[in-house]
Specification:
Blueprint lengths: L1 E15 L2 H8 L5 H4 L1 H11 L15 E10 L14 E14 L4 H14 L6 E4 L3 E7 L10
Antiparallel strand pairs: 1-3, 1-4, 1-5, 2-3
Length: about 150
């Protein structure tokens, strides 16, 4: 198998989830990814965006983890969760995927805007990395062994 490096950028989205969804995921119930309306809309956005998660013969590739996100709401905010001056801890689904580094800045901006438009937070945490390399493999022809 030949290993090739591909220039990509990483897109990581922090998405709040209900505690029961976190509990389902922690117990190994992967159906929670489809039954939670927020995560389902995020996964649908991935599927509808061909620029995301392309690795050769594999499409819509993503990685995820569940954790917690903490914040304190400041004066002037209109929070979905929490109240001014209060520290809030939210169960969070962290979604990571990649897109080709050659995607234009305008296309990246539009992609992030689509996520912002469906995200439940007033100020969503969406990370877009600079260029990095990931491995991409391709099958090489078999090497014949020779016996002398």
């Amino acid at each position: 198998m030949n290993i090739e490096l591909k220039a990509v950028r990483k897109l990581r989205i922090h998405w709040p989830i209900p505690l029961y969804t976190m509990t389902q995921l922690a117990s190994g119930d992967l159906g929670a990814l489809e039954s939670d309306p927020g995560i389902a809309s995020l996964l649908q956005a991935l599927t509808a965006t061909p620029e995301l998660g392309g690795f050769g013969n594999y499409h819509h590739v993503f990685e995820s983890s569940a954790g917690f996100e903490g914040f304190t709401v400041a004066e002037g905010a209109n929070p979905t969760l929490g109240s001014v001056g209060q520290r809030t801890i939210s169960p969070t689904f962290v979604f990571t995927t990649y897109f080709d580094d050659s995607l234009s800045d305008q296309a990246v901006h539009e992609l992030v805007q689509r996520i912002v438009d469906i995200h439940p937070w007033e100020v969503p945490v969406i990370e877009v990395s600079g260029p990095l390399s990931v491995s991409s493999s391709a099958h090489a022809p078999a090497i014949e062994s020779r016996v002398a």
